[in-house]
């Protein structure tokens, strides 16, 4: 169990923008990749950190996790007390809301912390400290998922981290809305968005992603999904793509963090 959290929440209030189904792509990935760990856990607790002005994302996270881990519980944590008060009527079996911030004020370390669209307003040099603070709160085998999406969840990029640090970066999109993979650059998480410049690995990756997408244009006659799958397969020849067609079909590509990590 972690030390007693500070008396005042750590962090700053976010804009609070939220919409129903905004985080469905991230939730779907979490359920697929982390569901087994939640099923095995004695305390299968997930945190929706900074859920915003309305509690929709926390409610949806509970329902999606329970499809793969029926004992899963979700705690929505918000630094703005008025948002917590507004969310209380939505509490239900397995879902509670609590006032707090990056200290994650829970009696048991959670197995999952999801922080979506939270670090967007922070400076890049603050991200590593927040990551360390949050991963230190994870239970053994736990996962932090931190990233950014657009307002209706069509485009999303997130980093998955364990207690040891960042592991993977996932690019996810509604394929019908995509002109080219580099359209996702505007949704890169804070740790990467300012590194999308020549000489940085994430810039080279998105360049190669676009080239593979262009080369796969003949597959567009079979649909955007088939074109994306062909693109991901070609991309994996030169980049450490960690997932396979079952995830590519969902409009996802997951890459090892080390291949995209910023250069000092």
What does this structure look like?
The protein is α/β, with parallel strands linked by helices and 264 residues long. The protein has 2 domains: 24-173, 3-Layer(aba) Sandwich (Rossmann fold), CATH 3.40.50.150; 175-239, no CATH class. It has 9 helices and 8 strands. It has an 8-stranded mixed β-sheet with strand order 3-2-1-4-5-6-7-8, with helices on both faces. A hairpin with a 2-residue loop joins strand 6 and strand 7 (165-173). The chain starts with 23 loop residues before the first helix and ends with a helix.
Q: Would you kindly provide a brief summary of this structure?
A:
The protein has nine helices and eight strands. The chain is of the alpha/beta class and 264 residues long.
Q: Give me the Rg, rounded.
A: 18 Å
Proportion of beta-strand residues: 15-25%
Which homologous superfamily in CATH is the superfamily of the largest domain?
A: Vaccinia Virus protein VP39
Number of extended strands: 8
* Order of strands in the sheet with most strands: 3-2-1-4-5-6-7-8
- Biggest sheet character: 8 strands, mixed
CATH class of the largest domain: Alpha Beta
N-C termini distance: 34 Å
Structure keywords:
single chain, 264 residues, alpha/beta, Rossmann fold, 2 domains, eight-stranded mixed beta sheet, 8 strands, disordered N terminus, SAM-dependent_MTases_sf, transferase, methyltransferase, Class I SAM-dependent methyltransferase
